[in-house]
Amino acid sequence: MSATNSLLSANLRSHGRRYISTGLAVAISTAFIVITLIVMAAMTSSLTSGVYSQYQGGTIVVSQDNDAPEGAIESAEKALKDTNGVTAIKHMAQWPVVAQTDTTRGGLYVSPLAPKPFAEPVLSAGTAPTADDQIIIPESTASSLSLKVGDTLKVRSGFTEGDYRTLTIVGTTRSNTISMGIPASYVTDGGFSAIFGSTASGKFIVATSGTDADSNENPPEATQDEWVAKANSALSDISGVSVTSVREAITKDLDQARLGASVTTGIMLIFPAIAALVASIVVSSTFRVVLTQRTRELALLRTLGATRRQVRSLVTREAFAIGAISSAIGVVVGWMIGALAVVESGLGTSIAEVLVGVSVWQLALTWLGATLFTTLVGVFPARAASRVAPIAALAPVNEAGAGSRKKHTLRFILGVLVAASGSALVAYAWRLDSASQKFMLSFGGALVALLGAVVAVSVLLPALTRAFGVVFPGMLSAMARENTMRNPGRTSATGSAILIGVTLVVTIMVGAASVRTTLTNAVNDARPFDLIAVSTTGELTDDQQAAITSTDGVAATVAQYAAPGVLTLTPSASAFEPAEGSGAVEPGMTLPVMITGEPNYTGVTHSTVTQMGDDEVRVGDKALAGQMLRLCADTCTDLSAAYDKDLSDGDTRVSEKTLRSIVTSPERQAIIIKLADGADVEAVQSTLLKDSQLSVNGSALERQMYTKVIDQMMMVLVGLLGVSVVVSLVGVANTLSLSVAERTRENGLLRALGLTRRQMKSLLALEALFLSLTGALIGVGLGIAFGWVGVMSLPIEGATAVMSVPWLQLVGVCAVAIVSALVASWLPGRRAAKVSPSEALATE
Question: Which CATH number is correct for 93-201, 2.60.40, 1.10.150, 1.10.12, 2.40.40?
Answer without folding.
Answer: 2.40.40
